[in-house]
Each structure stands twice: as C-alpha cells, then as structure tokens.
Amino acid sequence: MRSFANRTEGFEDSIFAVMSQKAAQYQAINLSQGFPDFDGPEFIKKSACDFINKGANQYAPFAGVKELRSSLADLYKDFYDLSYNADSEITIVNGATEGIYATIQALINPGDEVVVFEPVYDSYVSSIKLAGAKAVPVTLKGPNFTFDKQELENAFSHQTKLVIINSPHNPTGKVFSTQELEMVARPATKHDCFVLSDEVYEHLVYDDVKHIPFASLEGMKDRTITISSAGKTFGLTGWKVGWCCASDDVIDRIRKVHQYITFSIATPLQFAVAQGLKEIKSYLVEFRSCYQSKRDLFMQGLEELGFELPTPKGTYFIMLPISQKTELDDIGFCEKLIVENKVATIPPSAFYLNSEEGKKYLRICYAKEDETLKKALSNLQGL
Ligand code: PMP
Ligand code: GLN
Questions:
Q1: Cα–ligand 2 centroid distance for 122 (angstroms)
Q2: What does the pLDDT average to over 368-379?
Q3: Which of 6, 168, 238, 383 stands 20 to 30 A from 213 (CA)?
Q4: What is the pTM of this model?
Q5: Residue 169: pLDDT band by 50, 70, 90 thresholds?
Q6: CATH class of the domain at 6-40+281-379
Q7: Residues whose CB is less than 8 angstroms from the CB of residue 57 and which lie 6 or more positions away in sequence, other chains included
C-alpha cells in the first residue's frame, strides 16, 4: 500500500496560514499572520528592479552574494562589535525559516534533545521533529513572560545538543534581558550545547530597550548560530532573504545542507538587501518610530476597551490576556472575534507543547496601517 513518510505524521497546516485563510473567508481584518499590510521601502524595491534590469538574474553562489555577506559583516561589527568573516562565517538562506531548518539538520541527530521556550515559534518544533529529535519546552509565564531558572536547568540532560532562544520574542513581544540570557548561557555551557539565536526582530525594539545578541555574551560566540532576516527589518516578508552567522566549521555544515534544500537565494533580491543594509542606520530611525507609534496606538485602544497588560518592548506582536473579557478559551474567543467582530487573531495555544497558558491569550499583529488598526479597535468596541 502507498504511504507517506512517518516523519510527517501529525503535521498540520501552519496556524498562520489557517488564520489568514479564515480572515479572508469571513472578510475579517487580518491581525493574525505577522506581516505588514503596507509596502517595504521604495529605495530597496527600486534597487531590486535595477539589479534585475542590469542582468543579475542567474544563480547566486550557494553561500550568497559576496556584497550581501560583506554588508552583514560590517553591520554585525558596527552594531554589536561582533566580528564575522564574510567568506566563511556568514551564509545566506531562504529566510530565517530555512536557516533554522538547515541549522537543525546540520547539528542534530535522531534522539537528541533541543531546549526551547514556549510559546514557541512553530517552525522550531517541526524542524526538530524532522531531524528525529525531541523539543523540551521551558514555559515563559505571563504577564511578563519570565522563566524559572530551575525549570530551565531541569530541561537540560545528557541528550541536549541545542537550545533555541528567540529575542525579541514572537509571540510575546518580550525582549530578554542580559541577565536572562546569561541564565541560558550557563546550562548551555555546562552541557556543551550549541545555541540557535533567532534574532529576526532584532531592530524592532522600543522605548529604552536594547537588543542583545546572544553571541555577544562572554564566551558564547563560538557555540552560537545567529539567524536573522531582511523580512522584518525592511518590511518585505515575501522576499525571504535570511542569513546565518556562526563559526566557520558550523557554517560549512549549514552550507552543505542548504545547497541541497534550495542551493541559492534570489540573486537580485540579495543585491538589493545588501544596498539596503548600507543605509540601515538612517532607515531604522523612522522604521522604529513608525512601529512604536503603531504599538502605542493599539495599546491605548486596548486599554480603552478595558484590557490590562504590560506594554511589549519588541516585535510587532501583542499577547492579549482574554480572561478579563470571556470564559472562552483562545480558540473559542478567536473564532468569536472573527465571525462576530470581523477581526482575525492567532490562538496561541498552538505555540505551547506542555502548558495550558496559551488558552488565556490571543496574539495580535499590529504591523498594519493606522487606519486598519483603528478599524479593528472600532470593531472590538463593546467586548
Ligand atoms: N523566526 C521567527 C520568530 C519569526 O517570527 C519568523 C517569521 N516571521 C521567522 C523566524 C521566519 O522568518 P522568515 O520569514 O525570514 O523565514
Ligand atoms: N512569522 C510570521 C508570524 O509569526 C508568520 C510566518 C509564516 O506564515 N510562516 O506570524
């Protein structure tokens, strides 16, 4: 009888795709899947068109175009004082998603364990499963999404090969402090693990808060694979230009996997992102204040609706505590909001492996035009 690979058992459509599809079905305002409803910057789009017209249209080297790797090396040095060799310690991938998958394939054996923080971004767990390994969750507890040091240390075992950290964190908007990151560094060092640091929201930090790359902690650079992407930074999620930075032996392995997944990434888009990175400092000033004002607009609206929650310091997500307003769980309340209020959100229980905590929240994406956010708030009146 014909059958499918066992490794895909239990896989379902991603919650992001499901909710965007439902938003369309019910003609609801889509605050579910994380992407802006406005376009990315003109200068980068124009640069991509120029490169297409100039003939940058054949395969890129599988490591990525040198211009982009060099721009990234400059950025890591300039922003974080981290030195990466553009030739051997940086590689370009098809968005952070491929970087995560390729890194896990390159490092993890069947039977290994990977420590993750829940709520956990969906692709980590699926990539871990596809490698035949096990995700071991540590729960971030609301309202501030802190974790228990003992629970973290207990999550490590002789089988632990990798810990995945994501700061700024999707879906909570939490930005981990140096002290919290150091709490992760200690057991990672003790158990001699790799650390995958997903930093796709590195530039989306607000107020007085700073992003701290995990690799910048003392002694951590060698064991850390830093992954990021142009998708969030330039509001171009459909371009899928991402990168991994790590020591040369790790990057060599990641490249060996990457060449058999996608081989290489869209050439003109890589050149355009390289151009964009050259102007990133001036670009980020407006970018950050634009997102911060969207966060403030939406938070104020939620407060006026009677919700109480701490202000998230990063990403473009809010974890909205719902028990103040309903007896329903996240899935039930999410359904009600789509059908009755025409607002689509994400039920975060999809991001938890052990804890029931997710049932008490909805994830909202505020990377939307102010008008979209105001309309959504107006639809939520009377909750
Ligand atoms: N990691 C996190 C935490 C994300 O939220 C996302 C999605 N935006 C990704 C990775 C994937 O990024 P990309 O679109 O570059 O593949
Ligand atoms: N990262 C986006 C989110 O968190 C979704 C990406 C996707 O749809 N795969 O909503």
A1: 9
A2: 98
A3: 238
A4: 0.98
A5: very high
A6: alpha beta
A7: 267, 268
